[in-house]
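Researcher: Next sequence.
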Amino acid sequence: MNPLLPEEAVAFGIAAAKAFAALDGVDAARRAEVDPTVRAGEVASALVALGVDDLDPRTDPDSLAAAASLCEASGRVALPYPVASVLLADGDGRPFAVVPDRAARVDHGDLFAEWVVAPRSGPAVLASTGGKRLGTRLGPFVADLRPGAAVTGRPSVDDTDGDVLVHLALTAFGVLGTSDRAVELAVEHVNGRVQFGKPIAAFQAVQFQLADAAVAVAGLRELAHFTLWRLATALDDAIPDVLALRLHAVDVARSVLRTCQQLHGAAGVCDEYDISVLTRMVQPALRLPWSAERTTALLASAVRDHGFDGLFEHAAAPA
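Model: Next structure:
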């Protein structure tokens, strides 16, 4: 395994970061909350200019890596757009999402008239807009879609379906971007915040917290890159890997974002500060399609059914 992404994918991620910076970064999410048409206007236009319509992560490993870089860059600015879903759109332009069993619940579900959605059990189905907007409990753009007819040849997460696994992995890369940016913001804040005559970054307790957060993000990045490699080289065996990545991404994000908000003090829950917006906007990715507890149960089931390859004998798949 090569833990580094291809140079082309890294370059594409840098180009995406510049494009999102031109949208004023996290301010695009703030504007979208005031005017939701910002998403289908300037945000969608920026993605089209990047060539997202021509990027298919199912094509080859390099395209998959480029898609991951794009999702990470979008997570760093809480880009108000379903990037992972659009990257997996079908030939008719319908985005794809993995959803809970009880509801076709999708972030930014109102942006497209039709979606292809896959529950945990049962086949993927077409879903249409018109459902009830949930409000702010999960996120300002989360909507319930109306499920319809089944889509032939599209299995659920219980099967080895590439789109399901890639969607979960790309969503985890968005969470990685958010977590990484949160640590950067915390470092900037503690270096600029002065208490008792010196920056609070000089206090050992603060340094320990930042070190733990940075190590957690670095570990998540390694696991994300490993999972990407597994998807590209052993898709049939990658179900446990993808579920493990999702679970770890949720755990890391919760811990890192909590630490970074606390280091900001009361400012950490004020939307004038980017850390607050990042924390709110990433909630749908952390809670949909499943909670951490439900993901843990799915992972245990996947390990039982598929094994879980590792460096040591006890982690190998059963004979």
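Model: Confidence is low (pLDDT under 50) at residues 156-160. The two ends are 24 Å apart (CA to CA).
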